[in-house]
Amino acid sequence: MSAPALDVDLTLGLPGFTLRVKTQVPGGVTAVMGPSGAGKTSLLEAIAGLRRRARGRVAVGAHVLLDSAGGVALPPERRRVGYVPQDAGLFPHLSVLENVRFGSRSDAEAVDAAIDTLEIRPLLTRSPRLLSGGEKQRVALARALAIRPRLLLLDEPLAALDPGLRERILPWLLRVRDEWTLPCLYVTHNVGEALAVASHLIVLQGGRVEAEGEPRALLSAPAVVGEAEAGIENLLPGRVVTHDTTGGITRVRTDAGFDVSITLAAEREVGVAVTLAVRSEDVLVCKAPVEGLSARNVYPARVVALERTGPDVVLRGALENGGGELLARVTPAAVAALDLAPDRDVWLAVKSHSIRIV
Predict the structure, then answer these.
(1) Is 105 exposed, middle or buried (0-12, 13-18, 19+ CB in 10 A)?
(2) The pTM is what?
(3) Of 137, 224, 260, 331, which residue is the least packed, with the fewest Cβ within 10 Å?
(4) Rounded CA gap, 167 and 211, in Å?
């Protein structure tokens, strides 16, 4: 069963401008991007029912949450919208289990499903103050799922976390996306996260939808370029296949079907799910087959597009045999020297040491 679509036609007066968003987004995850002050958080709060002055219509499939013309304005507790703010918003006086149960209306089955999806059972007796940042976000996400939401709203859930933390919750977001059938709006400033998690992207600017569509197709949108200039990570979910202790290599098979060799990570059991991160600037582009190179990961690919992002260019390379895409960040001079253009064959290379597990 596919997730229902989300219909939004909202108007909300804000200091300095008016938020006016009219869109229909497909089921699954839709990323919401844009500069600070564009109205992203206000949009989520209006959909959740936390902005009483919002007018218009909001519907999840056949379920109408707001219809000002028809006199419908469900209160937040009746909208069945799971909302995860940036700071997690856990109740400090409740245990982890009590936090997850909050609002679930004694639905033990939903609570257990949320706990198992986020794998937080060992944390249930703890106080929120004893949790790490990543653990707090997993608990907040479990609490949002435990109400069996019609819609999930995530407001920059990774923004407050150190990018180097091994317990970042991106793998858990991917798991929720794949295991729970519900639409999700995911606010983020990180282009790599949007590409990894979402199938649709909305770009807000000054309270308006500036652009929307498939995330990779919007890399050159003005409101996205600024974020892309800060760097783009290729985020690759997959599973550990083998460990080569002699060679110092762990092999991971990505969900897209291609193998990646990384620095030995023997602590990760064979078969366990992992997410790999590769900075786009660490992907080398060659116009001929590569020989005598120390990089262990070399893939034949076809150039899909070249998108100017500030001073640099992001190359979208489609790997052979339906192996997904890798993004490589190169200079305009490199584009000219290598005679790069859409539909050209290239080879993309990545050193094992340039890949980390998140």
Answers:
(1) exposed
(2) 0.80
(3) 331
(4) 33
